[in-house]
Design a protein that fits this description.
By secondary structure, this protein is α/β, with parallel strands linked by helices. It has 30 helices and 34 strands. The protein has six domains: 48 residues, Phosphorylase Kinase, domain 1; 275 residues, Rossmann fold (3-Layer(aba) Sandwich), CATH 3.40.50; 191 residues, Dimethylsulfoxide Reductase, domain 2; 117 residues, Barwin-like endoglucanases, CATH 2.40.40; 113 residues, no CATH class; 56 residues, Arc Repressor Mutant, subunit A (Orthogonal Bundle), CATH 1.10.10.1100. 31% of the residues lie in helices and 19% in strands. Strand 1 and strand 2 form a beta hairpin. The structure holds ligand MGD (2 copies), iron/sulfur cluster and molybdenum atom (MO). The site of one ligand MGD has 31 residues, from helix 6, helix 13 and strand 21. Its cofactor is [4Fe-4S] cluster; Mo-bis(molybdopterin guanine dinucleotide).
């Protein structure tokens, strides 16, 4: 490790990998930190590409008022004044903060303190409501506190790992790799995947249960019933450490017929799963958004926990329920009480003693006395004018909230909107009256807590760009200007962390789970040296315990865990059988609304446009073929996406990724179609369950363009753009083929069709192909056809900026025919080494029958390893076809 290397933590997923960042002449070199206990040196594709996302293109570098550059002082004063004035006129409930699990703990702490302790309302909610809220409530109902009982090591020690509603291969890739290594060492370890879709995660599973959407409560209720019938309960644990078992078992009872109907699984599938669970002592059940983002998300969480409590498989090595948190600081946000339903340091807003304690600690003038508005309700309150001033920080709700157009309209009509972001032009920032530039990853200092309760430092290794300042500073400066100078007089993130730690330990004495007393008087120097640690860290505590509840002590009033009755009488069948069920989620190489990963050519190569997975039967029914566009609609809103026909998908289901938005595609923002239906206990929206119509989009003209210039305004019916190493690639489609191609071209690239240096036109097939050169260097190539353009994208992208001297070379380019010297790599699978599907298929055909052998030959999978599940799929498919 060189002197210029900084130890920090990845800003993406909740695995919380340690990163070594070394700024140098050619940018920042990124490596996994071998000493970090989350990843031991590994990084996934997104972590590995962090260096590509640190440029200042598109960054917000100065405060803006009404779209014009403004000074910090006037901007902060305006925010303070407008919030104060709104509160004076309409009361504290007329303002709100909408925050993010990507804020650092210190940022979050200050925001929560300002709103709950000094403005005096709990109208502070966060995108964690869309992410982890059901788990929070599920944990509290069962354990009396929001605790993840185990740690990552448990996944490695388990003999059975169950993944429920988790696409771990793509969403928690380094943890997935740890699990893969553990299984390679102990092949007897079993992995079960429960997901309606067969995802890349299934590549590692011994058993994939393609459960009916929202069949999870029934599945785990059925398991509880099975365990009871088979005499496989841990009766002594139940008797000594829990309450309400009988109620839970009674509620779980259902006929076999109902069980099959709700889960969509056969008797054999159920029996195999139930037997595995019953027979294995060391079981870890990991769950993620297929569980949380549901109108019965909280009951799903409790149905899972019930089975672990009933078998005493909790808090032990290799056993327990394990919530996989999404965002880098989802957990830190919960620790500071960043949600509208909590107080600080895992205290309860509904508990007067807790409120009094926090108020005394903060010396606050106006404590919130009840829960505030949860995300969906908060934007409803903006829409109906109850909230008149809102501050959005570190999240992009116009893309990520359900009923996204309603959110956009609400912000448009809100009298005062503040947005703190690192980027100047997000779909949310467009509605801001005041924009405040935040420090981004690598520029800011603070802490994050990962899925296993491990607190790690994010450290700055880059100078602050422009006038950007830390998020906590935005909040603290407004707090001071609202009349609380001493309460918000922080000099650094370290000051804030120490205060947060002190509050967690304040009059705690072991009564509350969350305790960082050890750090209550941490010095800035110690903060600099802070090593990744699990909590609790009580003052004077000897050693760090990795697990909760081994001794059966819970944080409920009587110290016993609660079984929760989770009846399955909620409707799981399609409400309107004529509609399709829209499932949404993530792709391997993009992060949410793409403001950062969209800057990386390596990450943008894997999947470059919005797509819709659809079953062959459904595709045939609507008359759409692979690669044509489909139109997905609901409530008068429409999304266009590329059809991918997936034979393993249920007939009445489709899947569309959540990432694409107006900055990268014409109409890919899927949340425009997802209604704001929520779980009754957690308020978390059912983001995987919209009812939609799908039909063929019937485009008259399709296009594909590679261009060195950043595409200007794109006006075609459909477009999607992705950055490449030498420029951009753009997918296009026009509804009306007769519409002048010339117009399309000009709108797309500013280039004149008449000025193209090479043309190819085939009136029979309706194909037009054009290329523009600067000297002999390819500047832009455009391929147009009446059906989806059949040109290798990866190959075409590689042609940009190449030299084409002779007419023959240029002709070959327009023919889309790779020359012998430039073979077509096929769609990119390994983003680290740009290895494409054709290359991998050739290698497999040539005798590479293991992932390692492919790696040796092509390099694919040998850096971050995120593509390994895809590589093994190639091998499986080849072996299968060879066997037939
Ligand atoms: N590459 C990448 N990784 C990420 C992120 C990212 O944006 N990109 N975001 C991070 C964040 S914030 C989060 S929250 C996590 C999310 O991580 P995951 O939860 O693993 O990801 P998702 O793709 O949202 O959804 C997981 C799966 O739930 C399935 N599912 C849908 N409905 C049901 C159901 O009713 N039952 C069951 N059992 N399964 C169902 C979907 O088919 C999907 O495959 O990922 C984190 N990691
Ligand atoms: N349909 C559907 N919708 C979903 C989901 C789904 O599965 N399906 N998943 C939901 C889930 S789990 C989540 S977590 C959300 C995520 O959704 P969002 O939180 O909206 O997504 P991000 O793109 O991560 O937004 C982060 C914003 O913060 C900015 N930013 C980055 N770093 C900083 C910083 O240091 N400070 C500040 N102030 N800003 C910064 C980024 O530029 C970006 O604008 O989406 C939810 N929406
Ligand atoms: S798994 Fe990947 S995205 Fe998640 S923290 Fe590790 S490197 Fe970052
Ligand atoms: Mo999330």
């Amino acid at each position: 490790m060189s002197d210029c290397t900084t130890r920090t933590t990845c800003p993406y997923c909740g695995v919380g990998c340690g990163v070594l960042a070394t700024p140098g002449k050619d940018g920042v070199a990124i490596k996994g930190d071998p000493q970090h206990p989350a990843n031991f040196g590994r990084l996934c594709s997104k972590g590995s590409a962090l260096g590509e996302t640190l440029d200042l293109d598109g960054r917000l570098l100065h405060p803006e008022i009404g779209g014009k550059r403004a000074g910090w002082d006037e901007s902060l004063s305006l925010v303070a004044e407008r919030f104060s004035q709104t509160i004076a006129e309409h009361g504290p409930n007329s303002v709100g903060f909408y925050l993010s699990g990507q804020m650092l703990t210190e940022d979050y702490y200050v925001a929560n303190k300002l709103m709950k302790g000094f403005i005096g309302t709990a109208n502070v909610d966060t995108n964690s409501r869309l992410c982890m809220a059901s788990t929070v409530v599920g944990h509290k109902r069962a354990f009396g506190a929001d605790i993840v009982p185990g740690c990552y090591e448990d996944l490695e020690l388990a003999d059975l790992v169950i993944l429920v509603g988790s696409n771990m291969a793509w969403c928690h890739p380094v943890l997935f790799q740890r699990l893969q290594s553990a299984k390679a060492e102990r092949p007897q370890m079993k992995i079960v995947l429960i997901d309606p879709r067969r995802t890349k995660t299934a590549e590692m599973a011994d058993l994939h249960l393609p459960i009916a959407p929202d069949g999870d409560v029934a599945l785990f209720n059925g398991l509880l019933q099975y365990l009871a019938d088979a005499g496989q309960l841990d009766q002594s644990y139940i008797d000594r450490h829990t309450n309400h078992f009988d109620e839970a078992l009674t509620a779980a009872k259902m006929s076999l017929k109902a069980l099959h109907a709700k889960t969509g699984l056969s008797a054999d599938q159920l029996a195999e799963f139930y037997r595995l669970f019953a027979q294995t002592e060391k079981v870890v059940t990991c769950f993620s958004q297929g569980v949380n983002q549901s109108s019965e998300g909280t009951n799903k969480v409790n149905a899972i926990i019930n089975c672990h409590l009933a078998t005493g498989r909790i808090g032990k090595k290799g056993a327990g329920p394990f919530s996989l948190t999404g965002q880098p600081n989802a957990m830190g946000g919960r620790e500071v009480g960043g949600l509208a339903t909590m107080l600080a340091a895992h205290m309860e807003i509904g508990n007067p003693a807790h409120r009094e304690l926090v108020q005394r600690f903060w010396q606050s003038p106006a404590m919130a006395s009840e829960q505030g508005l949860k995300a969906v309700d908060m934007f409803d309150a903006v829409a109906n004018g109850k909230i008149k001033a809102i501050w959005v920080m570190g999240t992009n709700p116009v893309v990520s909230m359900p009923d996204a157009n309603k959110v956009a309209n609400a912000l448009e009509n809100c009298p005062f909107v503040v947005v703190s972001d690192i980027m100047a032009d997000t779909e949310t920032a467009r509605f801001a009256h005041v924009k405040l530039p935040a420090l981004g990853w690598g520029e800011k200092d603070g802490t994050v807590t990962n899925s296993e309760r491990r607190i790690s430092r994010q450290r700055a290794f880059l100078p602050a760009p422009g006038e950007a300042r830390a998020d906590w500073w935005h909040m603290a400066e407004v707090g001071k200007r609202m009349g609380h100078p001493s309460a918000f007089d922080y000099r650094s993130a370290s000051d804030i962390f120490a205060e947060h730690a002190a509050l967690s330990a304040f009059e705690n004495n072991g009564t509350r789970d969350f305790d960082l007393g050890e750090y209550a008087s941490l010095s800035p120097k110690d903060y600099e040296k802070f090593q990744p640690t699990l909590w609790p860290r009580r003052k004077g505590q000897k050693g760090v315990s990795q697990r909760f509840f081994a001794g059966g002590h819970f944080f409920t009033p009587d110290g016993r865990a609660n079984f929760v009755a989770t009846p399955t009488d909620t409707e799981t069948a399609l409400a309107q059988p004529t509609k399709l069920r829209l499932n949404t989620g993530r792709v391997r190489d993009h992060w949410h609304t793409m403001t950062r990963t969209g800057k990386s050519a390596a990450l943008s190569a894997h999947i470059a446009e919005p797509y819709c997975e659809i079953s062959p039967g459904q595709a045939a029914k609507i008359g759409v073929r692979t690669a044509e566009l489909v139109e997905i609609s609901a409530a008068g809103q429409k999304v266009l996406a590329r059809a991918i026909i997936n034979p393993k998908l249920g007939h009445d289901q489709i899947f569309v990724p959540m990432h694409w938005n107006g900055n990268f595609s014409s109409n890919g923002r899927i949340n425009a179609l997802v209604p704001g239906k929520t779980d009754p206990f957690s308020g978390q929206p059912a983001l995987k369950a919209a009812q939609v119509d799908v039909r063929a989009a019937n485009m008259g003209l399709y296009g594909f363009m590679v261009t060195q210039a950043t595409p200007a305004e794109l006006h075609s019916t459909y477009w999607a753009k992705a950055i490449t190493k030498k420029g951009w690639r753009v997918e296009l489609a026009e509804k009306d083929a007769a519409r002048a191609i010339e117009k399309t071209v000009r709108a797309m690239s500013g280039l004149e069709i008449g000025a193209a240096d090479a043309h190819y036109h085939d009136p029979k097939t309706g194909q037009h192909r054009l290329a523009w050169f600067a000297g002999s260097q390819l500047q832009c190539a455009l391929f147009l056809a009446t059906e989806p353009v059949a040109v290798s994208r990866a190959w075409a992208v590689d042609q940009l900026a190449q030299i084409f001297e002779t007419p023959a070379e240029r002709y070959r380019l327009l023919a889309g025919r790779p020359g012998k010297d430039m073979p077509d790599p096929g769609p990119i699978v390994c983003s680290c080494f740009s290895v494409g599907a054709n290359q991998i298929a050739d290698a497999v055909k040539g005798g590479c029958t293991s992932v390692a052998a492919i790696g040796e030959k092509l390099g694919a999978g040998t850096n971050c390893g995120s593509c390994k599940p895809e590589l093994s799929e190639f091998i499986d498919e080849f072996t299968l076809s060879a066997a037939q």
